[in-house]
Amino acid sequence: MSYTVTSTPSLTLPVTNSISLTASDINSYRENGYHVIPNLLSPSQLQQWRTIIFTAVKDRAERKYKLPTSDEEDHTNVDFDYYDNVFTQRINLWQTHNSVKELLLESGSVIGKIAAELEGIDCVRIWHDQALIKEPFANPTAWHFDVTYWSFTSLHAISVWIALDDATLENGCMYFMPGSHKVIERHYYASNNTFPEIKIGKNMSDIFGTYPELKQWPTVAVPMKAGSASFHSALLIHGAGPNMTPGRRPAMTIQMMPDNMIFNGKQNILTKEQMDKLQIGVSVFNDDNCNPILYKKN
């Protein structure tokens, strides 16, 4: 598989600050399914992330495709007329932009380590990265959880969501359902270790058709200052409000998985070429060229 690799500005600064989790942080994450870290990036680091990510997004936007190859389509969402006005979405920028790859791998000693400690695993690989920019007056993001769409099945996958500008109640900050990951886990075991796939469409409430007990679940808004980040379990129900402002709300995300995950048959962000080579229940995602290690415990 080959991609056109584009140069973006090179790194000149340390990527992230040194951050240590407490036992209370980890316990809270496992209880609620998310953990917020204010000021994950310093002002100078934030500016560097913004420069590199925005350059890569602009380049990909000019080529008019979300994924690294132009003839591949997103297999997670439905109702594209609606969803394309939820986000400007650019996936796996690391595969086509060297500086994005360098940025993510440099961040692994902090971001990957935090993810591993929160989930209690020894190795974290990149499943994919994803720039998510709510354009002015963009639609809300329906309630969903992540791992149901991915090409592997795990109770320990995790994402980081980094605010590149302030994320506010007005411009579409994230919302979580604290503790909902436990409901999803119970259903997983009751359904023979499977997750039903619920496509992301324009109805905020579609997920309640499968998980009716969550319709009365409490929710929490998570506004964040630029440079702050939230880590959330791939089982946690989350969404985002509409952007009710004339400004953009940009974020950069990294979706992460444990080592040696096995292909479950879902396409998600995989290319047709990859799908043709993979065997359900046999093929393992441990190729550093496709899913680099972000962090591995010594």
UniProtKB/TrEMBL annotation:
Its cofactor is Fe cation. InterPro entries: Phytyl_CoA_dOase-like. Pfam families: PhyH. This is Phytanoyl-CoA dioxygenase. GO terms for molecular function: metal ion binding; oxidoreductase activity. SUPFAM superfamilies: Clavaminate synthase-like. PANTHER family: ECTOINE DIOXYGENASE, PHYTANOYL-COA DIOXYGENASE DOMAIN CONTAINING 1.
